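WARN no homologs supplied; continuing
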Amino acid sequence: MVIAALLLTVIGIAEIYTISPALAYKQMVFLLVALFLGYLIRRFFDFSYVRTIYTPLLFITFALLILVLLFPSHGVRRWIDLGFFRFQPSELTKLLLPFTFYLYDPWMYMWRNFLVGAAAFLLILIEPDLGTAVSVAFVIYMMFFYTGVNIFLLLYPLFMGLAVVLSFNIKLFVLLILIMLLVLYRLRAKWYISVFFLVSALFLGMITPVIWNTALKPYQRARILAFLNPGKYRKSHAYQLYQARVAIGRGEVFGEGWNRGTQKKYGFLPEAHTDFIFSSIAEDFGFVGTLVVLSLYFYILLYLFRGILKHRYEDHRRFLMGILLFYGYSFLINVGMNLGLLPTKGYPLSFVSYGGSHLIMDYILLFLALKSLEKAER
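OK structure emitted
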């Protein structure tokens, strides 16, 4: 698993070098720091320490999240400028949440886990950093789903989200209502729960078109429409998405060759070293290159999934699932965004994109996962 992660990082550094050699050298330094911390984890860390370090970690994470809101760096409320690099406190939530679910079983501490995640979500959202905030919400929701916490609490946001999306098509909306009622009936929901679901869905179905037409500003509506029809808005709100798809298309099967991609070289592809590095790889190395990246990712995710299935301890299974979900979210959001399957919202590709905070945290989680898997083999 470490070798797969290292190969991904090497591919990322090679792409970053074609954009900025200086950034590539910094990324190599970040990698060395990450591997050194990984060595310390493998050598000295024990899961018996988690309960001792959890409270300080909780305090430090929220203190730093509040600090960046009160004292923005260069007008941006996401990073703490340390001079040699900018630290992103929101990355600490990737460690905090798996530790939270490791220590506190959601069956017994549902509200505690929810409040920790909700507080982190709100503070990150205020920055604003929608991509990371949604990752926190995604991990909390899926962890509750994995541990089997109250099924109705999990179904409610799912059906309400679908009600918002389908409210513009009366046939699909009616179909959703029927499916929702059927699911609730099969789950033997109490009558008042079914009524609450139905009233909420109908309310959202009526209010969403009103909000679309009156509350949303023209540019906000344009961004949503640009995602649905990027060709029409390719010179404005869908510019990033359009250029990313052009870069992927130009790569064809074997790519244009390392450092020969014109979309990246001439500045057409935005954020080619971070959010759109997948498109940059596709342009240089084509379908074959992206297949290598996807294969390495699938290997890491499947390795963790196998570890969850065979682990003897439930707390470790929850911990590994938290890490798997963060990696999986990064993969789905970044690749989906590059392919035009999801709206363009900045989120780095784990192990590949440029950035010290997330690269170091990716490797910390990786070595902690390996430490946990060692316990399963004893």
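The chain has a mean pLDDT of 87.
OK
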